[in-house]
Amino acid sequence: MTSREIIDQLQQTTCWKEGTIKSLMNRLMQKKLIDSIDKTRPYQYITTIDQKKASLDQINGFIDRICKRQVGTYLNELIETSALSQDDCTLLIQTLEQKRALAPTEIPCNCPIGECHCTHTNIHT
């Protein structure tokens, strides 16, 4: 995609100004998440990371910021509120059964001491 195509598409779905989008594109290039194919105008841009990896990075980043004792609660909420096929459910059940065989009885709280909001302050790492 050219920078113009990216700008036009984002302006249709957001209220961002052109300068904001250009700044975002520059930051994404600095982080090596996108790259330009051509070094002459019009610049053609490609992603350097696939969507699955980007999505997993986002999910793992979220999980890293919550208490480890609450991960199961959040995963359960996601499952309850997500549209899942029967095959998805079967895969989840199989994965959970395998995970359960090796799972500890309790997960230690990883909240900073004195800042625990998970109501499980009795077990810390």
Distance between the termini: 47 Å
Helix content: 40-55%
Beta-strand portion reads under 5%
What structural category characterises the helix and strand content?
Answer: mainly alpha
| Strand segment tally | 2
Read across the widest sheet, the strand sequence of neighbours is: 1-2
Query: How many domain regions?
Result: 2
Number of helices: 5
Can you tag this structure with a few keywords?
125 residues, mainly alpha, 2 domains, two-stranded antiparallel sheet
What is the topology?
Blueprint: H1 3-13, H2 18-30, E1 34-36, E2 45-47, H3 51-64, H4 71-81, H5 86-102
Antiparallel strand pairs: 1-2
GO biological process, one term: negative regulation of DNA-templated transcription
Organism: Falseniella ignava CCUG 37419
InterPro entries: BlaI_family, WH-like_DNA-bd_sf, WH_DNA-bd_sf
